[in-house]
Amino acid sequence: RVPATSALRRNAQIHRATNLDATERTEEAIKILHEGIAEDASDLEAIVALGNIERGRKKFAECAGTYSRAIDILPDAAKGNWVYYYFRGICEERSKQWPRAEADLKKALELQPDQPHVLNYLGYSWIDQGINLDDGMKMIRKAVESRPDDGYIVDSLGWAYYRIGNYEEAVKHLERAVDLKPEDPTINDHLGDVYWRIGRT
Question: For a Cys staple, 55 with which of 63, 98, 159, 190, CB 3.0–4.6 Å?
Answer without folding.
Answer: 63
